[in-house]
Design brief:
The complex is a heterodimer of chains A (302) and B (247). Chain A has 302 residues and is mainly α. Chain A has one domain: MetI-like (MetI-like fold), CATH 1.10.3720. Chain A is 76% helix and 0% strand. Chain A has 10 helices and no strands. The radius of gyration of chain A is 30 Å and the shape is flat. Chain A starts with 26 loop residues before the first helix and ends in a 5-residue tail after the last helix. By secondary structure, chain B is α/β, with parallel strands linked by helices. Chain B contains 9 helices and 10 strands. In chain B, a hairpin with a 2-residue loop joins strand 1 and strand 2. In chain B, helix 3 packs across helix 4 and helix 3 runs parallel beside helix 5. The longest helix of chain B has 16 residues. Chain B is globular. The model of chain B has no long low-confidence stretch (mean pLDDT 92). Classes of the chains: A mainly alpha (302), B alpha/beta (247).
């Protein structure tokens, strides 16, 4: 190995000035960008073509089926749809009322139940156990059975002061079931707040309740908003179930029309109205979820 | 009378005994540095002192009052201490100003305007007055930790407990936090700090206490404990620290 005098290394100084505008992209980068654009365009075209093909096949399969003319007349009759629309729309107002009243009650009862479940200490054991039993019970029972039990069971008691309106009883049943779900969503949110936040609050002298109200719950709510909106979308369609108690809502109105004309189009109309109701909420839920994800990625938490 | 005194404090988590009877007295205007390897019980000691953990035996006395007595309202005791954590633990959903004014207004019932004025003055002193309206995630680690120190000072505590306040920081940001601690100490605040910054402990602390295996093995003036450690375990610990280039 040849012995060579080692030259003293000189520091390499960059000629790029910090803060100056970027030079135009290199040929290499331009070629990369062009390739990415080409690939994206090709993927879009492939997706479009396959979607069209599938739609065509489905369309032919359905319209060429032997029963299609009868199905079309029974389920997709424009005249029957137009005729039933006013009654169904009026019924939908009842659903909306249940949705608003029920939605607010669900938030209150759910949050209360969640708070009870997070209480520590032996003195609160009965409340904690009660809340746990309630959640287990009403998450397990199908909504329709709760509707029957509340809707027909309570009036049958014949007690004075017990409401008999299917609207009130239906709302009560829905609130009972949904609050159990929402309580668990809230509890997950409360437990997702890092214990160090609680330690910091308590070290400042905040009491357990102040810590909950000022530090834990605001952070928990932010975390669970997407999940809550998702439950709200589910609630929007389940309010249609109060029709089984005889409340004249959208579903019941459709049922009455079907009974009169033996045409099932009103059901489709009612279904479409519920979908129209759900779409804005679903988009809102998406937007809120996306925003929460962006916040998290920017490292807003520890 | 000491501001803060620990007498035979014992703490175990399940089968793991972390503190095996620790005695420590901190006099007014004094700075005590707790040193020791990770897992030696420094953080647990501070958490016991601030009543964030319940001791399994022994006593914690604040101004002579036994605050480990279950009949004592722990929330009232915590109001008289300030704690700063390794991971800052600022409240991410509150602005910097709200972080600082929260305890003075909510816990101590001071008028909002007065608390805000005082918080602004404190933030001004650490050069972060222009960040008052920002949320903590817009601040660097060093800035967040300085806000956390100010938040703890805003309640005018009797004693400040610092739990490795520079351990989560990039090396270039350690200096600004230590400078603030030095300033606070210079103003006469009583401080107990768990730290790995031996050079800082040597300069600022009145007493250095070496914790090992849940026992205070050695404590005394920094020159003595860091310069001529008596216990072989202290010597071994300091040798490791020197090897790591931290002293």
């Amino acid at each position: 190995m040849a012995l060579r005098r080692r030259r003293r290394a000189r520091p390499v100084l960059s000629t790029v000035r910090p803060g100056a505008a970027l030079p135009p992209p290199s040929a290499l980068e331009l070629e990369r960008r062009a390739w990415r654009t080409r690939r994206a365009r090709r993927s879009t075209l492939v997706a479009l073509a396959s979607t069209l093909l599938f739609a065509l096949v489905a369309w032919f399969a359905v319209t060429r089926s032997p029963g299609w003319p009868r199905v079309q007349a029974t389920f997709f009759s424009p005249s029957a749809a137009l005729e039933s629309l006013p009654d169904i729309a009026r019924g939908l107002l009842v659903n909306l009322q249940v949705l608003v009243v029920g939605g607010v009650l669900v938030l209150v009862v759910g949050l209360g139940t969640a708070a009870l479940r997070t209480l520590r200490g032996p003195a609160f054991a009965p409340l904690r156990i009660l809340a746990t039993v309630y959640v287990d019970l009403f998450r397990g029972v199908p909504l329709i059975i709760v509707l029957y039990l509340v809707g027909f069971g309570f009036p049958a008691l014949g007690l004075q002061g017990v409401p008999t309106s299917p609207f009130v009883l239906g709302t009560a049943a829905i609130v009972l079931v949904y609050s159990a779900y929402v309580a668990e969503v809230f509890r997950a949110g409360i437990e997702s707040v890092h214990p160090s936040q609680r330690a910091a609050a308590r070290s400042l002298g905040l009491t357990h309740r102040q810590t909950m109200r000022i530090v834990v719950l605001p952070q928990a709510l932010r975390t669970v908003t997407p999940a809550l909106l998702n439950d709200f979308v589910a609630l929007q369609k389940d309010v249609g179930l109060i029709s089984v108690l005889g409340a004249i809502d959208a579903v019941r109105s459709a049922q009455i029309q079907v009974g009169r004309t033996f045409n099932f189009t009103p059901y489709v109309v009612a279904g479409l109205l519920f979908v129209l109701l759900a779409v804005p909420s679903a988009r809102l839920a998406d937007a809120v979820t996306a925003r929460a994800r962006r916040r998290q990625q920017s490292g807003s938490l520890l | 009378m000491s501001v803060l005194e620990l007498r035979g404090v014992v703490k175990a988590f399940g089968p793991t005994v972390v503190l095996r009877g620790v005695d420590l007295a901190v006099d007014e205007h004094r700075v005590v540095a707790l040193i020791g390897g990770s897992g030696s019980g420094k953080s647990t000691l501070l958490r016991c002192a601030s009543l964030l953990e319940t001791v399994d035996d022994g006593q914690v006395l604040l101004d002579g009052e036994d605050v480990t007595d279950p009949r004592v309202d722990a929330d009232r005791v915590r109001r008289r201490m300030g704690v700063v954590f390794q991971a800052y633990n600022l409240f991410p959903h509150l602005s910097v100003l709200d972080n600082v004014t929260l305890a003075p207004t909510v816990v101590h019932g001071r008028p909002q305007a007065e608390a805000v004025e005082e918080a602004q003055a404190l933030l001004d002193r650490i050069g972060l007055a222009d960040k008052a309206a920002e949320f903590p995630d817009r601040l660097s680690g060093g800035q967040q930790q300085r806000v956390a120190i100010v938040r703890a000072l805003a309640v005018r505590p009797r004693v400040l407990l610092l739990d490795e306040v520079t351990s989560a920081l990039d090396p270039e940001l350690v200096g600004e936090v230590l400078a603030l601690v030095r300033e606070v100490a210079g103003q006469g605040m009583t401080i107990v700090m768990a730290t790995h910054e031996m050079g800082f402990a040597r300069q600022v602390a009145d007493t250095v206490a070496f914790l090992d295996g849940g026992v205070l093995l050695e404590s005394g003036p920094p020159g003595q404990v860091l310069g001529e450690p008596q216990h072989p375990r202290t010597r071994r610990f300091l040798a490791r620290v020197i090897d790591a280039g931290r002293l």
